[in-house]
Amino acid sequence: MGTVSAQSDAELLQAVREGNAAAYGQLYERHVVAARAMARQLVRSAEAEDVVAEAFTKILDLVGRGGGPDTAFRTYLLTVVRRTVHDRSRVESRQVSSGEIEQYDPGVPFIDPALAGLEKSLIARAYLSLPERWRAVLWHTEVERLKPADVAPLLGLSANGVAALAYRAREGLRQAYLQLHLGAPPQRECRPVLSKMGAYVRGGLARRESKAVDEHVKSCEECNGVLLELTDVNRGLRVMVGPLIAGPMFGGYAAALAKATATGGAGGLLGMLRRLRRTPRQQQAMMAGGTAVLVATAAGLLLVSDERPLQAAHPAATPVAQSPVTPDPVPVPVDAPSDAETPVPVRAPSPSEAPARVPPPVKTAKPGPARLRVTIEPLGALVRAETGLIALRLRNYGGSASASLSADVRLPSGVTLIPAPAARPGFAVPAAHPFTGSSGRPASGVPSAQGAAVTARGGGGAAVAEAVERAAGRRSDEAAGAKSDGSSGPKSTMDGWTCRPSSGGATCTRRPLAAGQGTAVFLRVLVAESAPEGGGPSVRVAAGSLRVRAKAKHGVRASGAPARFATDGPVTVRAIGNTLLTCPREVASCAEARRRAGAQRDNDLWPMMALDLDDRSETKSSSGAKLTLPKGGKVVWAGLYWSATGDEAGPIKLRPPGRRRYVTVKPADVAVRELPLGPVYQAFADVTHLVGKSGTYWAGDAPMEEGPARHAGWSLVMIVSDPDEPYGRAMVLDTATVIGGASRRVRFPLGGLTPAAAPARAELVTWEGDVDLRGDKVSLGTGALTPVGGDRDRSNVFDGSSRGVPELTFGVDVDTVTAELGADPGLTIVTDKDVVLFGVAAVSVRARQ
Length: 849
Prior knowledge:
Distance between the termini: 47 Å
Number of helices: 19
Structural class: alpha+beta
Radius of gyration: 31 Å
Strand content: 15-25%
Largest sheet: 6 strands, antiparallel
Strand order of the largest sheet: 8-9-10-4-12-13
Helix content: 25-40%
């Protein structure tokens, strides 16, 4: 049996409110290791102690005024540490003066700008709805992974009591999570299953009821997602709640806390005193505000036995004074009388032990040092025998410019860099080899134009706009950018980066990065057919004496889709499209079907005929779709995709708004796949140079077959800048993948995008979907999604509807879905009855850096 702590955190907090300074010293002893672990993820080691002292001081001040935490001291402390670092950086960069942030209330939830939106995830909302005591035990046991015996003193329980409380808290979390789902509300058939899900996870259902739940979740993407969340709430807590409380550096915090050893709180305070005496006078002023109260608390703490339980003192016996932190403050005692105007000093054995008054902080214009954060990730997925993209992103969140940058990139085994010509920085990067489909054979023998865009300097808008302007006059053959033999230059240049191949990877250099600015370079790589699955790429960045490193979680995968194009900035994705086949227009029920009515809305039910809507003699088949760009937005990249029944692909005609004649567009890549009724193809061409404004785009005369159960159509997929969008990331994955039959569920990893709970938009292009065959579902990791257009049925997404067209588009789907990304970002597509060719996914998401 465990032993019960003399006083829990809640009891100590109450003692502090009653005037017991030593009680706060005990809280300091218990939690200072965690505070240091958090601070050292955010600032240099030399600054960490100052941040910790300032955070404890602010909480003491608030508790003394009747605010602050009641039970969950640790999570409250970590939030204040993060907020303190955030406010210090704002003062250093002179965004605000110290006086403007001095009176902030640490009790107000602090949402790091890098994590905006995380608090809206269902698991985070469920956690925040729990009683504070339950939140505390879940944080310590599930998120920090402390042993019950280590948590027992904090909660005033035995180790067994902690385990029992944690069990009840987990059950409460599951119930809160289910209630949020039921409040959506879910579909009618899902509600009975969701109401039983909690008992199912606990093993409390009868065998018959458990089997019914099993059968339902097999076919329901949303309920399957709920079941996964409930089965592993511990993982959800670490993925969602951990970063919500501890910020983007939660992983480093958790590792540092696990390695940290307990140290004496009094010794730590005395060490702080010694460091203060050795510090130059000007720096003493900056440190004084964060240490003065803790110095006073230390004096009281030294008078208390280390072994005896702490007893709450009378409010008037040991009031605590706070030294001033602004030129003319009003100090607030822990429990001061209402008519008190001046603080009462702590009693000490001798005058020499009384804390000395420290001059107020001196404002300085000297900026803080450069601080770099680097990430490296494959975009989409690295797939064998295909080219791919790897994003290297770097941000300077310090107060000064960095030194010149040098990045040493290590690539996984079997992955090599494809150098790009320096003449066209930041655009389509040519492949050194022909495009290879998942079948492993070259599709067309034409070099691929898979590309990568320059990240924006600073916020991103200027570079995106500049990129658009440079791309406006580019010819389509320049988009490929390589010689006919696929050769390319010796180096890549993007956003000031110069990258050259090196043994095992690449070496990239760049000029210094200004304070508050971000940069990225997208590296084109070739994955060998024999490349092993395993660890991801890594990078070490040097900037003068500053060193940072990062490693991707994933490397080569067995399945997925590589990114064709990617960019960072205030960007979003758009797609339009239409069919090139229709039912016989002379049949009366055809008009009804085209209006999305009646019982014959599938191409399987008609002898499909060429659709020619432009009334021009130069086309035998044609259709249009309306594009509406965001106000002030421009097209950063545009790809034209077309597909039809048959294995012979060829050119298609495209007529942008404002042009009198069609432009013939030749395919750069072609993939041929087998559907139950025969072969189908998907073709691609980069048409950025042809797409630039809102209006109706027309396409026609793609190679196709007429007859029953045939399809033919086109789609224009774009990444566009949007001045109203926050800084984000966007990428285009194209993968001609057959889904249905034996492969009813396929998942495409979305590597390189912001992780969990970030708002995302996806444009999906799918061929040969049938509106009357239900069971088509799409998920971004948080349950089945409802498409924006068509019948808006999340159980029948591929219903012959295309953005930009109000009528039925036989065999062609261009769908828009929006959601929050799941914990492991990925696009999952399920079809129970239909067999479709999934073509393209364009995804944009708000970034967290």
